[in-house]
Amino acid sequence: MSNLYKQIWDELSIIDVSEHIEKKGNLSYLSWAWAYGTLMKYYPNNSYSFSHESFADGTMMVECMLAIHSGKDIAMRSMWLPVLDFKNQPIANPNAFQINTARMRCLVKCISQFGLGHYIYAGEDLPEGSKPVGKAKPIIGKNKTMLRQYIVQMQELYEQADGLGLLELDQELQQEDTPEGIYDAIWRVFTNEEQGVIRKLMSNKGE
User: Fold this and answer.
1) Which of 105, 128, 129, 102 is nearest to 117 (CA)?
2) Contact 112, 178 (CB under 8 A)
3) Alpha-helix residue ranges (DSSP H) falling in the chain
4) For the segment 33-74, what is each residue's pLDDT rounded down to a tens digit?
5) Which is it for strands 46-54 and 21-24: parallel, antiparallel or unpaired?
6) Were 98 and a residue from 35, 94, 121, 161 both cysteine, which residue would form a disulfide, CB within 3.0 to 4.6 Å?
7) Burial of 59 (0-12, 13-18, 19+ CB in 10 A)
8) Region 19-43: what's the mean pLDDT?
9) Domain 1-122 in CATH: superfamily?
């Protein structure tokens, strides 16, 4: 895999996004204008496109494809997001405004796959002492640092297609002394497609 993925991750993942997080209920978002503006500062040679899929119940899933170019190298990622209402529930027969909102949120989430604000989707935006949402546990204090380190480590092993390294890391994360919530939070950083690749790489090395 291209070293461009690692270069982008190393640059964007260390940016503090805390002052640009928008809250709606228990959900956290990054301003799409700020997120894309930040991406442009580092990698102005980028392009993105949207597509969607409609379902029998009238709900819709939008997809964003983002490509970042650097010389002859190109790094591409995609992300999916259902069109949701203010309660975070899928909307039947969404209108143009609701679709546009979902697309911009999907763009931000796609950018996060390159590193910018990725920890928002790993549960790290929960403040100290706050109650977890659903079954999620707040990751606080030293565990936040541990989470970041493990995410970077897994990302690097994934980019290197190091199946043995991924398998060893996965086994390490499942030890009893790993703080609760760390394992699940790390996996949530990766898309379903990326998770499939990682599990396949681990499976091949585990034979």
Assistant:
1) 105
2) no
3) 3-12, 32-42, 96-112, 142-159, 163-173, 182-188, 192-206
4) 999 999 999 999 999 999 999 999 999 999 999 999 988 889
5) unpaired
6) 94
7) middle
8) 82
9) DNA repair protein Rad52/59/22 (3.30.390.80)
